[in-house]
């Protein structure tokens, strides 16, 4: 808990609501219930905490019933701008293993993970993949693109990293972790091939993505598309100016794109403005970029998210979509 106090003092604005919540935590009397709280789970299992919903889904599949898993972010939450709450510090301090994306996807959580008092093994799962380099917000330097899961091949590397970390954490469950991973990798290989087949049906001149933020470079590179424009860069912390909006409008007109795409974790108002002014269709439904969908939705797992995005992209760019079986 001391680590969270130091984090609040140095990294987050002073907020009355946080202070009110922190007081009962310090006194040991916070009564907020949470099914993901490790304190409410089985103490005899390895305690694993994940940050993004994508990592939570992959770790749940690999770990199965042999780990105690807690995910910090809820579906639909934007990891770029998420601000930690006291419960997150408790989860990290009680963890045996913390799996986070890295490459600065979840900057505020990474600061908390690296704070003094967090003694769990910390693994930046995405950083096991060599990243694409993109321009920083200032446009002066290059920085790693954190959205590596856009390629199912990269997701396989992430899954194998999770497997290895879980085996090290709980060697007696190695057989189960390996079996779960093998099944998931087989499915991810099928997914990769299927996406390639769907995108190949899009007319070549239409194989371009214009989205709210720059989260689909890995997807585009893996499956034969080109990202020809975005409203903002790789982080949703950026705020596009009126000039940026107008520049994207002109870019859309030049490329003659059949559709542009909103994203589920970002307010669609500005990208809708671009679509209206450029006279182009705003695709429906919105793409899932930094989070899977809520439970029960058509994108409530990593694989289903990728299938849903591919369906949306293929149909709106003039391709022919076939179901993923």
Q: How would you explain this protein's 3D organization?
A:
- This protein has 325 residues and is an alpha/beta fold.
- It has helices spanning 2-11, 16-26, 53-63, 86-94, 107-113, 152-169, 174-199, 217-223, 242-255, 269-278, 302-316, and strands at residues 47-50, 68-71, 97-100, 121-124, 133-135, 142-144, 208-213, 226-232, 259-260, 281-282.
- The strands form four sheets. Strands 2-1-3-4 form a four-stranded parallel β-sheet, with helices on both faces. The protein has a two-stranded antiparallel sheet with strand order 5-6. It has a two-stranded parallel ribbon with strand order 7-8.
- The radius of gyration is 21 Å and the shape is globular.
- The chain starts with a helix and ends in a 9-residue tail after the last helix.
| Uncertain stretches of 5 or more adjacent residues | 2-41
What is the share of helical residues?
A: 40-55%
Report the C-alpha radius of gyration, rounded: 21 Å
* Total strand segments: 10
Label the overall shape.
globular
Biggest sheet overview? 4 strands, parallel
Distance between the termini: 47 Å
Average pLDDT for all residues? 87
Portion in beta strands: 5-15%
- Give the SSE string: HHEHEHEHEEEHHEHEHEHEH
User: Structural class, judged by helices and strands?
Assistant: alpha/beta
Tally the helices: 11
């Amino acid at each position: 808990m001391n680590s969270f106090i130091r984090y609040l003092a140095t990294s987050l604005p002073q907020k009355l609501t946080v202070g009110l919540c922190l007081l009962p935590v310090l006194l040991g009397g916070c009564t907020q219930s949470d099914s993901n709280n490790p304190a409410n789970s089985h103490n005899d299992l390895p305690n694993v905490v994940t940050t993004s919903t994508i990592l939570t889904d992959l770790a749940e599949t690999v770990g199965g019933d042999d780990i105690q898993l807690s995910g910090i972010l809820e579906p639909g939450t934007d990891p770029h701008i998420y601000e930690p709450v006291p419960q997150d510090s408790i989860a990290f301090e009680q963890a045996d293993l913390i799996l986070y994306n890295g490459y600065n996807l979840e900057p505020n959580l990474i600061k908390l993970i690296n704070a003094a008092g967090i003694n769990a093994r910390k693994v930046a799962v995405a950083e096991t993949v060599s990243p694409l380099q993109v321009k920083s917000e200032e446009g002066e330097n290059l920085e790693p693109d954190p959205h590596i899961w856009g390629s199912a091949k990269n997701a396989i590397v992430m899954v194998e990293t999770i497997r290895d970390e879980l085996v090290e954490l709980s060697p007696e469950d190695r057989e189960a972790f390996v079996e779960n991973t093998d099944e998931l990798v087989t499915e991810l290989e099928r997914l990769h091939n299927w996406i390639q087949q769907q995108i190949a049906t899009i007319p070549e001149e239409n194989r371009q993505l214009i989205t709210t933020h720059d989260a689909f470079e890995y997807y585009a590179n893996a499956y034969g598309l080109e990202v020809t424009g975005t409203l903002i860069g790789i982080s949703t912390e950026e705020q596009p100016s009126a000039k940026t909006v107008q520049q994207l409008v002109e870019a859309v007109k030049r490329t003659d794109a059949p559709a542009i795409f909103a994203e589920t974790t970002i307010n669609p108002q500005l990208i809708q403005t671009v679509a209206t002014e450029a006279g182009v269709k705003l695709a429906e439904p919105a793409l899932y970029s930094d989070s899977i969908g809520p439970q029960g939705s058509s994108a409530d797992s990593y694989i289903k998210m990728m299938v849903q995005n591919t369906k949306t992209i293929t149909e709106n760019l003039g391709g022919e979509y076939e179901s993923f079986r």
